[in-house]
Write a structure and sequence with these properties.
Strand content of chain B: under 5%
Number of helices of chain B: 0
Number of strands of chain A: 2
Strand order of the largest sheet of chain A: 1-2
Shape of chain A: globular
Oligomer: heterodimer
Shape of chain B: rod-shaped
Helix content of chain A: over 70%
Number of domains of chain A: 1
Strand content of chain A: under 5%
Chain lengths: 212, 10
Protein backbone atom coordinates (compact mmCIF):
# COMPACT_ATOMS: atom_id res chain seq x y z
CA UNK A 1 0.00 0.00 0.00
CA UNK A 2 1.23 3.53 -0.76
CA UNK A 3 -0.09 7.02 -0.23
CA UNK A 4 -1.33 7.34 -3.81
CA UNK A 5 -3.35 4.13 -3.67
CA UNK A 6 -4.75 5.02 -0.23
CA UNK A 7 -5.69 8.50 -1.46
CA UNK A 8 -7.27 6.90 -4.52
CA UNK A 9 -9.32 4.45 -2.48
CA UNK A 10 -10.45 7.23 -0.11
CA UNK A 11 -11.40 9.40 -3.08
CA UNK A 12 -13.42 6.51 -4.47
CA UNK A 13 -15.03 5.98 -1.06
CA UNK A 14 -15.81 9.71 -0.85
CA UNK A 15 -17.40 9.70 -4.30
CA UNK A 16 -19.76 6.86 -3.38
CA UNK A 17 -20.64 8.49 -0.05
CA UNK A 18 -21.29 11.86 -1.74
CA UNK A 19 -23.62 10.13 -4.20
CA UNK A 20 -25.50 8.32 -1.44
CA UNK A 21 -25.83 11.57 0.54
CA UNK A 22 -27.12 13.39 -2.54
CA UNK A 23 -29.75 10.76 -3.27
CA UNK A 24 -30.76 10.27 0.36
CA UNK A 25 -30.87 13.97 1.36
CA UNK A 26 -32.58 15.29 -1.75
CA UNK A 27 -34.60 12.05 -1.94
CA UNK A 28 -34.00 12.31 -5.64
CA UNK A 29 -31.65 10.88 -8.23
CA UNK A 30 -32.20 13.67 -10.74
CA UNK A 31 -29.12 14.22 -12.86
CA UNK A 32 -27.65 10.83 -11.98
CA UNK A 33 -27.28 8.16 -14.66
CA UNK A 34 -28.79 4.90 -13.44
CA UNK A 35 -27.08 3.16 -16.34
CA UNK A 36 -23.64 4.16 -15.09
CA UNK A 37 -24.58 2.94 -11.62
CA UNK A 38 -25.65 -0.42 -13.07
CA UNK A 39 -22.30 -0.64 -14.86
CA UNK A 40 -20.44 0.14 -11.63
CA UNK A 41 -22.37 -2.61 -9.84
CA UNK A 42 -21.37 -5.05 -12.62
CA UNK A 43 -17.76 -3.86 -12.32
CA UNK A 44 -17.64 -4.61 -8.59
CA UNK A 45 -19.52 -7.91 -8.83
CA UNK A 46 -17.23 -9.26 -11.56
CA UNK A 47 -14.09 -7.93 -9.88
CA UNK A 48 -14.75 -9.00 -6.29
CA UNK A 49 -15.87 -12.58 -6.86
CA UNK A 50 -12.73 -13.62 -4.97
CA UNK A 51 -14.01 -11.75 -1.92
CA UNK A 52 -14.35 -14.96 0.10
CA UNK A 53 -11.63 -17.03 -1.48
CA UNK A 54 -8.73 -14.59 -1.61
CA UNK A 55 -8.14 -12.77 1.68
CA UNK A 56 -5.66 -9.88 1.26
CA UNK A 57 -6.29 -7.75 4.38
CA UNK A 58 -9.12 -6.50 6.56
CA UNK A 59 -8.92 -3.17 4.75
CA UNK A 60 -9.19 -4.85 1.35
CA UNK A 61 -12.14 -6.98 2.41
CA UNK A 62 -13.93 -4.09 4.13
CA UNK A 63 -13.57 -1.83 1.09
CA UNK A 64 -14.75 -4.58 -1.28
CA UNK A 65 -17.82 -5.23 0.87
CA UNK A 66 -18.60 -1.50 1.03
CA UNK A 67 -18.15 -0.96 -2.71
CA UNK A 68 -20.32 -3.99 -3.53
CA UNK A 69 -23.02 -3.04 -1.05
CA UNK A 70 -23.10 0.66 -1.93
CA UNK A 71 -23.18 0.12 -5.70
CA UNK A 72 -25.98 -2.43 -5.47
CA UNK A 73 -27.73 -0.20 -2.92
CA UNK A 74 -27.47 2.81 -5.24
CA UNK A 75 -29.04 0.82 -8.09
CA UNK A 76 -31.84 -0.17 -5.70
CA UNK A 77 -32.39 3.46 -4.66
CA UNK A 78 -32.47 4.65 -8.24
CA UNK A 79 -34.60 1.96 -9.84
CA UNK A 80 -36.91 1.14 -6.97
CA UNK A 81 -37.08 3.52 -4.03
CA UNK A 82 -36.68 6.86 -5.82
CA UNK A 83 -37.78 5.51 -9.18
CA UNK A 84 -40.16 8.46 -9.71
CA UNK A 85 -37.24 10.91 -9.70
CA UNK A 86 -35.10 8.94 -12.15
CA UNK A 87 -34.61 10.94 -15.34
CA UNK A 88 -35.21 8.27 -18.01
CA UNK A 89 -35.37 10.79 -20.84
CA UNK A 90 -31.80 11.98 -20.43
CA UNK A 91 -30.25 8.66 -19.38
CA UNK A 92 -30.24 7.07 -22.80
CA UNK A 93 -26.65 5.98 -23.51
CA UNK A 94 -26.74 2.46 -25.05
CA UNK A 95 -24.78 0.44 -22.47
CA UNK A 96 -24.76 -2.62 -24.72
CA UNK A 97 -22.22 -0.64 -26.78
CA UNK A 98 -20.02 -0.73 -23.68
CA UNK A 99 -20.77 -4.23 -22.40
CA UNK A 100 -20.21 -6.15 -25.62
CA UNK A 101 -16.88 -4.65 -26.76
CA UNK A 102 -15.39 -4.85 -23.25
CA UNK A 103 -16.57 -8.46 -22.90
CA UNK A 104 -15.07 -9.41 -26.26
CA UNK A 105 -11.84 -7.53 -25.50
CA UNK A 106 -11.50 -9.32 -22.14
CA UNK A 107 -11.72 -12.66 -23.97
CA UNK A 108 -8.97 -11.63 -26.37
CA UNK A 109 -6.68 -9.40 -24.30
CA UNK A 110 -6.02 -10.87 -20.85
CA UNK A 111 -3.20 -12.20 -18.70
CA UNK A 112 -4.62 -15.73 -18.45
CA UNK A 113 -7.54 -17.48 -20.09
CA UNK A 114 -9.35 -18.48 -16.91
CA UNK A 115 -12.81 -17.56 -15.65
CA UNK A 116 -11.61 -15.42 -12.74
CA UNK A 117 -8.96 -13.64 -14.79
CA UNK A 118 -11.32 -12.93 -17.69
CA UNK A 119 -14.00 -11.59 -15.33
CA UNK A 120 -11.38 -9.40 -13.62
CA UNK A 121 -10.17 -8.15 -17.03
CA UNK A 122 -13.76 -7.50 -18.12
CA UNK A 123 -14.36 -5.49 -14.94
CA UNK A 124 -11.22 -3.42 -15.57
CA UNK A 125 -12.21 -2.65 -19.17
CA UNK A 126 -15.84 -1.94 -18.21
CA UNK A 127 -14.84 0.39 -15.38
CA UNK A 128 -12.81 2.49 -17.81
CA UNK A 129 -15.95 3.36 -19.80
CA UNK A 130 -18.66 2.98 -17.13
CA UNK A 131 -18.86 6.74 -16.57
CA UNK A 132 -19.79 7.46 -20.21
CA UNK A 133 -23.57 7.27 -19.66
CA UNK A 134 -23.21 9.76 -16.80
CA UNK A 135 -21.03 12.17 -18.79
CA UNK A 136 -23.40 11.77 -21.73
CA UNK A 137 -26.36 12.61 -19.47
CA UNK A 138 -24.63 15.73 -18.12
CA UNK A 139 -23.90 16.86 -21.68
CA UNK A 140 -27.53 16.23 -22.65
CA UNK A 141 -29.00 18.10 -19.69
CA UNK A 142 -26.29 20.74 -20.19
CA UNK A 143 -25.72 21.11 -16.46
CA UNK A 144 -25.14 19.23 -13.21
CA UNK A 145 -25.91 19.99 -9.57
CA UNK A 146 -22.79 21.01 -7.71
CA UNK A 147 -22.96 17.94 -5.44
CA UNK A 148 -23.11 15.75 -8.56
CA UNK A 149 -20.02 17.48 -9.92
CA UNK A 150 -18.21 16.89 -6.60
CA UNK A 151 -19.17 13.22 -6.96
CA UNK A 152 -17.73 13.13 -10.48
CA UNK A 153 -14.57 14.95 -9.42
CA UNK A 154 -13.90 12.46 -6.61
CA UNK A 155 -14.71 9.52 -8.87
CA UNK A 156 -12.45 10.76 -11.67
CA UNK A 157 -9.64 11.57 -9.25
CA UNK A 158 -9.58 8.07 -7.78
CA UNK A 159 -8.30 6.40 -10.92
CA UNK A 160 -5.98 9.35 -11.60
CA UNK A 161 -4.42 8.73 -8.17
CA UNK A 162 -4.17 5.03 -9.05
CA UNK A 163 -2.01 6.00 -12.03
CA UNK A 164 0.40 7.65 -9.58
CA UNK A 165 0.19 4.46 -7.50
CA UNK A 166 1.18 2.37 -10.56
CA UNK A 167 4.12 4.68 -11.29
CA UNK A 168 5.19 4.36 -7.65
CA UNK A 169 4.83 0.55 -7.67
CA UNK A 170 6.76 0.29 -10.95
CA UNK A 171 9.76 2.21 -9.61
CA UNK A 172 9.75 0.94 -6.02
CA UNK A 173 8.32 -2.59 -6.33
CA UNK A 174 9.01 -3.36 -9.98
CA UNK A 175 5.32 -4.25 -10.25
CA UNK A 176 3.04 -3.19 -13.07
CA UNK A 177 -0.13 -4.48 -14.72
CA UNK A 178 -0.37 -3.12 -18.26
CA UNK A 179 -4.10 -3.93 -18.56
CA UNK A 180 -5.01 -1.96 -15.44
CA UNK A 181 -2.66 0.89 -16.43
CA UNK A 182 -3.96 1.33 -19.98
CA UNK A 183 -7.59 1.07 -18.88
CA UNK A 184 -6.93 3.44 -15.98
CA UNK A 185 -5.41 6.01 -18.33
CA UNK A 186 -8.39 5.77 -20.69
CA UNK A 187 -10.75 6.12 -17.72
CA UNK A 188 -8.98 9.22 -16.41
CA UNK A 189 -8.70 10.81 -19.86
CA UNK A 190 -12.50 10.55 -20.25
CA UNK A 191 -12.83 12.94 -17.30
CA UNK A 192 -10.45 15.57 -18.67
CA UNK A 193 -13.01 17.98 -20.09
CA UNK A 194 -15.12 17.55 -16.96
CA UNK A 195 -12.05 18.25 -14.77
CA UNK A 196 -11.45 21.43 -16.78
CA UNK A 197 -15.05 22.60 -16.28
CA UNK A 198 -15.00 21.59 -12.61
CA UNK A 199 -11.82 23.53 -11.87
CA UNK A 200 -12.70 26.61 -13.92
CA UNK A 201 -16.36 26.79 -12.86
CA UNK A 202 -17.49 24.78 -9.87
CA UNK A 203 -14.49 25.71 -7.73
CA UNK A 204 -15.37 29.35 -8.44
CA UNK A 205 -18.82 28.77 -7.04
CA UNK A 206 -20.51 28.68 -10.41
CA UNK A 207 -22.88 25.93 -11.49
CA UNK A 208 -21.49 23.35 -13.91
CA UNK A 209 -22.94 24.50 -17.22
CA UNK A 210 -21.84 22.74 -20.37
CA UNK A 211 -21.76 24.86 -23.51
CA UNK A 212 -24.97 23.77 -25.22
CA UNK B 1 5.20 -17.50 -6.57
CA UNK B 2 1.43 -17.95 -6.83
CA UNK B 3 0.94 -15.26 -4.15
CA UNK B 4 2.92 -12.81 -6.24
CA UNK B 5 0.22 -12.12 -8.76
CA UNK B 6 -2.55 -11.92 -6.14
CA UNK B 7 -4.88 -9.07 -7.04
CA UNK B 8 -4.21 -6.82 -4.07
CA UNK B 9 -5.65 -3.63 -5.58
CA UNK B 10 -9.30 -2.69 -5.31
Amino acid sequence: MNIFRLAGDLSHLAAIIILLIKIWKTRSCAGISGRSQVLFAIVFITRYLDLFTNFISAYNTAMKVFFLGSSIGTVYLMYLKFKATYDHNHDTFRIEFLLLPTALLSLVLNHEFSVMEILWTFSIYLESVAILPQLFMVSKTGEAESITSHYLFALGSYRGLYILNWIYRYYFEGFYDIIAIVAGCVQTILYCDFFYLYITKVLKGKKLQLPA
Amino acid sequence: EEDENKKDEL
